[in-house]
């Protein structure tokens, strides 16, 4: 029963993200509105064909419908955090989530900004054309460089 409830939550969540009404999803999938309502309510016994139709109509793989998404709440006290050396700074892992891939959320502190590569920019052009059609050497543009001392990311829920 839990699996069907999870399936229903996922269908309802993804349908909401796509801003589809139940009727619109029924039309796109070729399924009855009542069938979809039962599915979202955690009832029924959907066939593989039904799951494929719903997944295609939502634009996702079937695994998105049958996988529990999200992560449990993790509480980590500041004093319990473990800092690992990472290049020219240090890193502290806050969370590790495995869903459709591995996601590590970490705090990264850079201690030596000289080791940070500048952002990539397009190669400067070697010639420019004036309105009269004559070519002259172009002045390369210097890209703006910014260095972050501390960056952090938060987990998606």
From TrEMBL:
<feature type="compositionally biased region" description="Low complexity">
    <location>
        <begin position="123"/>
        <end position="138"/>
    </location>
</feature>
<keyword id="KW-0238">DNA-binding</keyword>
<feature type="domain" description="HTH cro/C1-type">
    <location>
        <begin position="11"/>
        <end position="65"/>
    </location>
</feature>
<dbReference type="InterPro" id="IPR010982">
    <property type="entry name" value="Lambda_DNA-bd_dom_sf"/>
</dbReference>
<protein>
    <submittedName>
        <fullName>Helix-turn-helix transcriptional regulator</fullName>
    </submittedName>
</protein>
<dbReference type="Pfam" id="PF01381">
    <property type="entry name" value="HTH_3"/>
</dbReference>
<dbReference type="InterPro" id="IPR001387">
    <property type="entry name" value="Cro/C1-type_HTH"/>
</dbReference>
<feature type="region of interest" description="Disordered">
    <location>
        <begin position="115"/>
        <end position="157"/>
    </location>
</feature>
<feature type="compositionally biased region" description="Polar residues">
    <location>
        <begin position="144"/>
        <end position="157"/>
    </location>
</feature>
<dbReference type="InterPro" id="IPR050807">
    <property type="entry name" value="TransReg_Diox_bact_type"/>
</dbReference>
């Amino acid at each position: 029963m839990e699996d069907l409830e999870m399936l229903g939550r996922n269908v309802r969540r993804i349908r909401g993200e796509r801003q589809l009404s139940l009727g619109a999803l029924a039309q796109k999938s070729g399924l009855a509105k009542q069938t979809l309502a039962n599915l979202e309510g955690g009832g029924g016994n959907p066939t593989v064909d039904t799951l494929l139709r719903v997944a295609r109509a939502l634009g996702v793989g079937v695994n998105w419908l049958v996988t529990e998404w999200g992560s449990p709440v993790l509480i980590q006290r500041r004093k319990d955090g473990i800092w690992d050396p990472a290049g020219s700074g240090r890193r502290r892992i806050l969370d590790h989530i495995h869903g459709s891939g591995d996601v590590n959320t970490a705090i990264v502190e850079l201690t030596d900004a000289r080791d940070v590569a500048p952002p990539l920019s397009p190669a400067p052009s070697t010639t420019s054309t004036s309105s009269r059609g004559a070519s002259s050497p172009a002045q390369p543009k210097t890209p703006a460089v910014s260095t972050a001392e501390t960056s952090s990311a938060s987990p998606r829920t």
